[in-house]
């Protein structure tokens, strides 16, 4: 049975998955690489971020047991879209890791992000009538951009916005300043949502790092497991409670809980997602930790399966 490797180099995280043509996940990898660190100020991917990306990819290759003959679909998003040195950076990455990335647009990112969650929602709907609805919305919140994806039986309507957790921290510096600029941050998103009055979503799916991390912390998981958070529901109160708990920790405790590279952006991520829940008017969200990496693999698998079917 053939297998595909899907890789997502985001503005904050590097994520990889190995999947077979039955869409079964055979291995996963994730690391925080902070691709967008300092991007707002310099307009470039910095050397420290490049080093973290290369190291992360080398570890990913080991973790997923990647061989030269493996089929790899490697995609990268907002940080590389924005950086003036992205071509040079991706050439260095290819030289050092033998992995060639394709920069995708915000619209392509939204579509690819939606593929795996749409499959999962259909499965959940078979056992839970709550998810047997014609329309739902996915919010994929990254390091430098966030995608709002309205999924219907007729297809998706989506838009990418240049607001994310690393970008928010770098631009606004403090959580208080970030909150003070809430109105201008959400204004373009509110406009887009208002344009979707004909697509009234019945529920919200959260598939990005902050909601999944909050879910894992709330569950008391010693180590993160995407399968254990899958299908869980978080309420607004859960986010507020975990944010309050996090803010009472000292720096060492924060780093021990979420890691050195996440500790300073976690409050921004939680607050930003609370903004999103508020403007979407949802009190809760469904956790499905699937996104671009799974979507990349699914693209390859769908192509193979269609070819086999048409033989």
TrEMBL record:
Give one GO term, molecular function aspect.
pyrophosphatase activity
Q: Domain Ppx/GppA phosphatase N-terminal spans what residues?
A: 24-296
What's the domain of life for this entry? Bacteria
Pfam families hit by this protein:
Ppx-GppA
**Database matches in InterPro entries:** ATPase_NBD (IPR043129), GppA/Ppx_hydrolase (IPR050273), Ppx_GppA_N (IPR003695)
Recorded hits in PANTHER family, A to Z, give: EXOPOLYPHOSPHATASE, RETROGRADE REGULATION PROTEIN 2
Protein known as: Exopolyphosphatase
């Amino acid at each position: 049975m053939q297998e595909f490797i899907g890789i997502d180099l985001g503005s904050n995280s590097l994520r990889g998955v190995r999947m077979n043509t039955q869409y079964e996940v055979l291995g996963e990898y994730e690391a925080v690489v902070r691709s967008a660190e300092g991007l707002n100020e310099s307009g470039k991917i910095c050397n420290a971020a490049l080093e973290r990306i290369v190291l992360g990819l080398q570890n990913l290759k080991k973790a997923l047991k990647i061989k030269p003959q493996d089929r790899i679909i490697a995609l990268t998003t907002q940080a590389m879209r924005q950086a003036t040195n992205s071509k040079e950076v991706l050439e260095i990455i290819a030289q050092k890791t033998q992995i060639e990335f394709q920069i995708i647009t915000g619209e392509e990112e939204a579509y690819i992000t939606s593929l795996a969650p749409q499959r999962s929602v259909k499965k959940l709907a078979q056992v839970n009538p709550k998810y047997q609805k014609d329309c739902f919305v996915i919010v994929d919140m990254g390091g430098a951009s966030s995608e709002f994806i309205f999924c219907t039986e007729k297809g998706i309507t989506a838009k990418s916005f240049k607001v994310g957790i690393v970008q928010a921290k770098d631009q606004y510096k403090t959580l208080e300043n970030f909150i003070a600029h809430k109105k201008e941050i959400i204004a373009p998103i509110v406009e887009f949502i208002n344009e979707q009055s004909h697509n009234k979503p019945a529920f919200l799916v959260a598939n990005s790092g902050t909601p999944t991390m909050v879910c894992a912390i709330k569950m008391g998981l010693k180590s993160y497991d995407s399968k254990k958070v899958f299908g869980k529901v978080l309420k607004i109160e859960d986010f507020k409670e975990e944010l309050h708990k996090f803010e009472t920790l000292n720096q060492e405790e924060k780093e021990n809980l979420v890691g050195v590279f996440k500790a300073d952006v976690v409050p921004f991520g939680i607050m930003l997602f609370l903004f999103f829940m508020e403007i979407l008017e949802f009190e809760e969200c469904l956790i499905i930790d699937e996104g671009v990496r799974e979507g990349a693999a699914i693209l390859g698998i769908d192509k193979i399966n269609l070819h086999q079917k048409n033989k």
